[in-house]
């Protein structure tokens, strides 16, 4: 699918991977709706790329639906490109040393990372299914979700996070199969260690240790490199129903 002239909606678009994605899609000619829980962050990015800022928490289905409606109203139609970057990183042991449980952390992580992704994907599918096909293949749109290498290599303390991202990875193929009749592709990217707000607070020695474990290149990924993969997925019509790791060939150790 050509990006130029298309409408795109990016959740978590006010920072990190989502911001980089919104910027790249806009640079390729898309009209971008930047959806973020932080209205201020969304406005900052949208104003700089000529997009529209939409404030919504992905755990609030009504707010997400309103964001899709607003996108259509302001940009003149439903998005053909939807990228799910909204999410949280959590760390909590199943059973802590003091014997306390982490059920609240698990529930919140699943609600944001998995149910939030499913909510956005569902509304995107409904919106896209009503659009006219773009080509002889019947293509109508592309949905790109974000998992993590933790879905396969979850470390100690990442049970909730790995489970949430594992759910995102697992829904990719059945979603792609179901939505194929509408000409909607579904793909998932599983990033490894990337330069985001979560990694910005790392101590230099911790960062150096992490990067030493990356085979090649031995550095954290840049948000723009994630965004580049989003572009390539959108533009390649036969990428569908797959999870792509983008991780410098790293396999995370238990801790």
Structure overview:
With 255 residues, the protein is of the alpha/beta class. The chain has one domain (7-196, 223-245): Rossmann fold, CATH 3.40.50.720. 45% of the residues lie in helices and 15% in strands. The chain is built from nine helices and seven strands; from the N terminus they run E-H-E-H-E-H-E-H-E-H-H-E-H-H-H-E. The chain has helices at 16-27, 39-49, 61-75, 103-129, 150-153, 159-179, 197-200, 204-212, 223-235, and strands spanning 7-11, 31-36, 52-55, 81-84, 141-146, 184-191, 243-246. The protein has a seven-stranded parallel beta sheet, sandwiched between helices. Helix 1 (16-27) crosses helix 9 (223-235), helix 3 packs parallel to helix 4 (103-129) and helix 4 packs parallel to helix 6. The longest helix has 27 residues, at 103-129. The radius of gyration is 18 Å and the shape is globular. The model has no long low-confidence stretch (mean pLDDT 95).
Give a summary of the structure in a few sentences.
The chain has 255 residues and is an alpha/beta fold. It contains nine helices and seven strands; from the N terminus they run βαβαβαβαβααβαααβ.
Strand order within the widest beta sheet:
3-2-1-4-5-6-7
Overall 3D shape: globular
Query: Helical element count?
Result: 9
Question: What CATH first level would be assigned?
Answer: Alpha Beta
Distance between the termini: 41 Å
Return the structural class.
Answer: alpha/beta
Fill in the CATH topology: Rossmann fold
Catalogue the unreliable spans: none
Oligomer: single chain
Helices and strands, in order, run as EHEHEHEHEHHEHHHE
Count of the domains: 1
- The Rg value, from CA coordinates, equals 18 Å
Protein name: SDR family NAD(P)-dependent oxidoreductase
Organism: Stappia sediminis
Keywords: Oxidoreductase
Family: Belongs to the short-chain dehydrogenases/reductases (SDR) family.
């Amino acid at each position: 699918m050509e990006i130029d002239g298309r409408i795109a909606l990016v959740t978590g678009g006010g920072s990190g991977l989502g911001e980089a994605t919104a910027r790249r899609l806009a640079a390729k000619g898309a009209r971008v709706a930047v959806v973020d829980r932080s209205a201020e962050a969304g406005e900052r990015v949208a104003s700089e790329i000529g997009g529209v800022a939409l404030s919504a928490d992905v755990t609030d289905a009504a707010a997400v639906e309103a964001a899709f409606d607003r996108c259509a109203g302001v940009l003149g139609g439903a998005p053909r490109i939807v990228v799910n970057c909204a999410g949280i990183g959590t760390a909590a042991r199943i059973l802590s040393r003091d014997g306390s449980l982490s059920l609240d952390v698990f529930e919140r992580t699943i609600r944001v990372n998995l149910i939030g992704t499913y909510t956005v994907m569902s509304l995107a599918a409904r919106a896209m299914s009503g659009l006219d096909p773009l080509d002889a293949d019947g293509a109508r749109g592309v949905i790109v979700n974000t998992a993590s290498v933790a879905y396969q290599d979850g470390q100690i303390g990442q049970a909730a996070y790995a489970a949430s991202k594992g759910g995102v990875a697992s829904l990719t193929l059945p979603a792609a199969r179901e939505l194929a009749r509408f000409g909607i592709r579904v793909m998932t990217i599983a990033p490894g260690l990337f330069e985001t707000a979560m990694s910005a607070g790392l101590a230099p020695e911790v960062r150096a240790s992490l990067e030493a474990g990356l085979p090649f290149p031995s550095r954290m990924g840049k948000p723009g490199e994630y965004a580049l993969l989003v572009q390539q997925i959108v533009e390649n019509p036969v990428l569908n129903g797959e999870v792509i790791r983008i991780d410098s060939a790293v396999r995370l150790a238990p801790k």
